[in-house]
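Quick one, T. Sequence first:
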Amino acid sequence: MATARPLPPPAPELDAPALATALQAAVRQARAPVAVITGAGVSTGSGIPDYRDHRGAWKRPAPMQLAEFTGSEHGRRRYWARSLVGWRTVATARPNRAHHALAALEARGLVGPLITQNVDGLHQAAGSTQVIDLHGRLDRVACLDCQRIIPRDQHQASLEAANPGWAEAATQVTDAPDGDADLADVDYTRFVVPPCMACGGLLKPEVVFFGETVPRPRVDTAFTALAGAGALLVVGSSLMVWSGYRFVRAAAAAGQPVYLLGLGVSRGDAEATGRLTMDCGDGLEALLEALEAPEAPA
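Structure tokens:
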């Protein structure tokens, strides 16, 4: 068993009014809104499970790795068979209070660019307009050979047509993150994965798998957005993976204040100026209320 990564002591605890005051001060000083990074804790309120518990440990077996998906036909069958069932969780999910609060904070001018590690598109559905989908979008499917992009709903229809009755026959289903589902005692050998209709190539969800590198242009866009921000607010992420944590490191190195909001441990506590330990929806709504209070600074 791998040894858990040692975590720094928690950052100084703030309440919502103190966080509101700190963020407003950062915006005034930099004359720029706050950048936000969001993680799975934001979307759990929409019924989409997360990968880790509040201690940062895996809740279930490690997810699909890129090497297994591209190098193993059995791995691809297992992924798409589980995804055929699990996609309905993401497809029917709706923005929750956390998503709507972040959109409201953007409308107020406090929040600017939003870098999300989630792949569900719920920030855009809630009205946020400056979203950078760091890990891609699950509602799109890409051909690794011809680079054609199709809607996930179109691929879902192909999967269901090629495997009639599969979703209905699946039993002992446990929803897992990113549109996956844990299926017990299932034989994947007869599952059919339709190829790309344009070139016959290999289809993959347009998301960054574990073991895969985030496209450099997307990373550069996120760093540029962060560089122009007054502060960085991390919401609902343990920051256990480097793809998100690197932005916290960069902000702290540049002298930008870093604040954390959410439950559980965070790898970013060493860099954080302060944290608000609350459920994401509760915390963001409390932040909005503090900003709207008459005694809040203008």
